[in-house]
Amino acid sequence: MNTIITLLHSRDIIPDKNVDLVLLKAQKEDVDILSQMHAEAFSQSLVEIKTTKASLLDSLQRPNMVLWKFFDKKTQNIIGMASSTFDGHLIHLADVVINKKHRNQGFGQLLMSNLIDQTRLIYNRPKVYLQLRITNQVALHVYLKLGFEFVDMHHLSNQEKWLKAS
Question: CATH code at 50?
Answer without folding.
Answer: 3.40.630.30
